[in-house]
Design brief:
alpha+beta; four-stranded antiparallel β-sheet; OB fold (Dihydrolipoamide Acetyltransferase, E2P)
Length: 382
């Protein structure tokens, strides 16, 4: 039997004591008061007064378009306008060589004079029965035909001066001085577009048209006359166009293949800011909602079915999940139709760190500031 040294016994006792102490520490429950609560940013739902409007994408089109073509053939002597300028209806744009048409008119007038004298002589002779009634009628017919030839020659001579059919902005000329043009040519010499007023065409589903008509009838849309609604145009750079227009609901047809309709708005364009083909957004002014509930868009999540949800806090600062019905967006905020009430506290920041049932520490955050009038945008056309 081997004897143990006193130092070895003390070391073993110390080791056993340490093990017991570590085991006791692992089994000791930690106090819940030592775990800090997760901080989340919240906003309190408050009613607001907002001006509602619907916004639709559209493109501008010229109010009138006229392609300038020759009605007689000939050589162009000169062009009377500057490309890219504004022209007035009746203004001479091109001059075709009139010499051949003057000669034709002179011959026609000479033939007319001869036919007139013959008819007048036969008119007297038929009264004395010196000639037959048939001869007199033939002379009258030749006289009327000669008059028609003169009138036709005069019209052709006038057509050598090619005038603008409408007032508007004229583009580039496709021909130059000395070019030969023909009355049957398909290529236009130039194109004139009337840009004041100008059209804004908006393509929307037929259901949107029905809804807009109902809102106009009920007075929810601001009326600009019978069957018309007032619109504001937002330019592509985000600025509001200064002149309001009118959206017309008459003579609208549905595209059978797509079920869409094209609504046409007439907008004044005195400064020529709007040009054909520009992309704009048309805003329809609706009524004022005095008790609108708005929350930041970042506080709303979507499930796999696309339904909106938000996390709110109860009286004990515990997280609850609430289903929402969103209607429109405005400057980073959602207009809530259903699911929230005045005074609800909605979690905005820290959503990823919490789950329903957790107790959290709420920290108020400032709401998204709005500038000027609160204009709410609809999702139509997106």
């Amino acid at each position: 039997m081997v004897a143990k040294s006193p130092s070895a016994g003390k070391s073993a006792a110390l080791l056993i004591s340490i093990c017991f102490a570590l085991t006791a520490c692992e089994k000791a429950p930690s106090s819940s008061s030592d775990v800090p609560l997760t901080e989340v940013g919240v906003v309190t739902v408050k009613p607001k007064s907002v001006q509602l409007s619907s916004e639709f994408p559209g493109r501008t089109n010229a109010f009138l378009i006229a392609e300038v073509r020759p009605q007689v053939s000939g050589v162009l002597l000169k062009r009377e306008f500057r490309e890219g300028s504004n022209v007035s209806a009746g203004q001479v744009l091109y001059q075709i060589d009139p010499a051949p048409y003057r000669a034709t008119l002179a011959r026609a007038e000479a033939s007319l004079g001869s036919a007139k004298l013959l008819f007048e002589r036969y008119q007297r002779l038929v009264q004395t029965h010196a000639i037959s009634q048939q001869q007199r009628d033939d002379a009258r017919s030749q006289y009327l035909q000669a008059k028609a030839v003169v009138e036709s020659a005069r019209i052709d001579l006038n057509y050598t001066r090619i005038a603008a059919p409408i007032s508007g902005h004229i583009g580039r000329s496709t021909v130059t001085q000395g070019a030969l043009v023909t009355a049957s040519q398909t290529t236009a010499l130039a194109t004139i577009q009337q840009l004041d007023p100008i059209y804004v065409d908006i393509t929307q589903p037929a259901t949107t048209l029905l809804e807009l008509k109902e809102n106009l009838t009920s007075g929810q849309l601001k009326s600009a006359g019978k069957g018309q609604a007032e619109i504001r145009v937002m330019l592509d750079n985000g600025r509001i166009y200064p002149h309001p227009g009118t959206l017309q609901f008459s003579e609208v047809s549905v595209d059978e293949s797509t079920g869409a309709v094209t609504l046409r708005a007439v907008v004044p364009n005195p400064e020529g800011i709007l040009l054909p083909g520009m992309f704009v957004r048309a805003q329809l002014q609706e009524g004022v909602s005095e008790q609108a509930l708005l929350i930041p868009q970042r506080s709303v999540t979507r499930d796999t079915q696309g339904k909106a949800n938000a996390l709110i806090l109860d009286d004990e600062d515990r997280v609850l999940q609430r289903s929402l019905v969103t209607e429109r967006s405005i400057d980073g905020q959602w207009l809530i139709r259903d699911g929230l009430h005045v005074g609800d506290r909605v979690i905005v920041d820290g959503i990823q760190k919490v789950q329903p049932g957790m107790q959290v520490k709420p920290m108020p955050v400032s709401e998204v500031p709005t500038h000027g009038v609160n204009t709410i945008k609809s999702d139509a056309g997106k």
